[in-house]
């Protein structure tokens, strides 16, 4: 039955795709995905996929629009090659922040992406930690949303901290942070903040909860420019926290994020490799946990008709 399963990748995070196929004990599918000099993207599948169960691994990360179009064209290519079922494995769902009309005359781009992926040929979606839970409802195809919560909390459990407090970086992430705190048997604090306009700037206002003389772990779904993280760390240190650790699922690390993290008093930033952390993004204080075993197990369960939700029943 596993002979019918094939895993392919675009250029967004090929190392992750290789790690997933190593977990599954199978070779990575062969295809060409490249850009002509006129910036048109070309895809050619180099093996038979007729009536096969296809999984395409492609996070929508930087360069976001190029990786998105690669994924759409790959979906179309596999659809036209008569694949039996095509699952878009999108570990990081770009444009996830644009999930509602919070100002007049703005788009809901997260919904637009759902429509584009479906029209292009995706029969189902496999992803990790959406920015907002309601994005699942934007799809008219099955969606399996995995979470890195267990992976991250298990890492910190091994550190055996005393006087720990888990800090949600804003009210929107508080439910996820509460679950994280429960796994570490720690209290929860919440940062109250306001975003300034449409720019990547936030104004941290208040800490809700007791943090004085504790070790704090901040929880978020992604770290983008690291502006929020730096503000949070600074505010927590001013409130008497002994040490601050940070964790998130998606290391976007855009703009001056790496320089900000390097200059910040944060002790360690723990992330997964839904987005590749390489080159200049590597810092001693950034720890990357592999997400491939979780994705590989989910792919195996989807292919064999087993429960994906059972992965998280603890």
Q: Name the structural class.
A: alpha/beta
Question: How many beta-strand segments?
Answer: 14
Provide mean pLDDT, rounded. 94
Distance between the amino and carboxyl termini: 29 Å
Strand order of the largest sheet: 10-9-8-11-12-13-14
The H-and-E topology, N to C, reads as EHEEEHEHEEHEHEEEHEHEEH
Class of the largest domain in CATH?
A: Alpha Beta
Helix content: 25-40%
Uncertain stretches of 5 or more adjacent residues: none
- Sheet-strand content, in percent, reads 25-35%
How would a textbook summarize the main sheet?
7 strands, mixed
What sort of overall outline do the alpha carbons produce when their principal axes are compared?
globular
Per CATH, the architecture of the largest domain is: 3-Layer(aba) Sandwich
What Rg is obtained from the alpha carbons, in whole angstroms? 20 Å
Count of helical stretches: 8
CATH domain topology of the largest domain: Rossmann fold
- Domain count, please report it: 2
Folded structure, characterized:
There is one protein chain. This protein has 314 residues and is an alpha/beta fold. Helix 1 (14-24) packs across helix 8 and helix 4 packs parallel to helix 5 (174-184). The protein contains eight helices and 14 strands. The protein has two domains: 2-147 and 292-312, Rossmann fold, CATH 3.40.50.2020; 149-289, Rossmann fold, CATH 3.40.50.2020. Strand 9 (188-195) and strand 10 (202-208) form a beta hairpin. It is globular and about 60 Å long. The chain has a seven-stranded mixed sheet with strand order 10-9-8-11-12-13-14, sandwiched between helices. Strands 1-4-5-6-7 form a five-stranded parallel sheet, sandwiched between helices. The protein has a two-stranded antiparallel ribbon with strand order 2-3.
């Amino acid at each position: 039955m596993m002979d019918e399963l094939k895993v392919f990748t675009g250029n967004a995070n090929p190392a992750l795709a290789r790690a997933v196929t190593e977990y599954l004990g199978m070779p990575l599918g062969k295809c060409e995905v490249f850009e002509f000099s006129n910036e048109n993207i070309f895809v050619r599948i180099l093996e038979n996929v007729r009536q096969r169960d296809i999984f395409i691994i492609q996070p929508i990360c930087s360069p976001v629009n190029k990786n998105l179009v690669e994924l759409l064209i790959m979906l179309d290519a596999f659809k036209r090659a008569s694949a039996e079922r095509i699952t878009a494995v999108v570990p990081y769902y770009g444009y996830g922040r644009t999930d509602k009309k919070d100002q007049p005359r703005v788009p809901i781009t997260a919904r637009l992406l759902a429509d584009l992926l479906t029209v292009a040929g995706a029969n189902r979606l496999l992803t990790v930690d959406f920015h907002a839970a309601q994005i699942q409802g934007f799809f008219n195809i099955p969606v399996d949303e995995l979470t890195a919560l267990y992976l991250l909390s298990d890492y910190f459990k091994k550190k055996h901290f005393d006087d720990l407090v888990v800090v949600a970086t804003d009210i929107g992430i508080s439910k996820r942070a509460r679950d994280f705190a429960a796994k570490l048997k720690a209290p929860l604090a919440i940062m109250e903040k306001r975003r300034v306009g449409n720019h990547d700037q936030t104004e941290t206002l208040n800490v809700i909860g007791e943090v004085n003389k504790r070790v704090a772990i901040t929880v978020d779904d992604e770290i983008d420019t690291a502006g929020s993280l730096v503000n949070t760390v600074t505010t927590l240190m001013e409130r008497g926290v002994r040490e601050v650790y940070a964790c998130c699922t998606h290391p976007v690390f855009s703009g001056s994020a790496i320089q900000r993290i390097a200059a910040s008093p944060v002790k360690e930033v723990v992330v997964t490799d839904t987005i590749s952390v390489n080159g200049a993004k590597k810092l001693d204080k950034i720890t990357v946990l592999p997400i491939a075993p979780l994705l590989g197990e989910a792919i195996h369960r989807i292919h064999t008709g087993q429960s994906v939700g059972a992965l998280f029943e603890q």
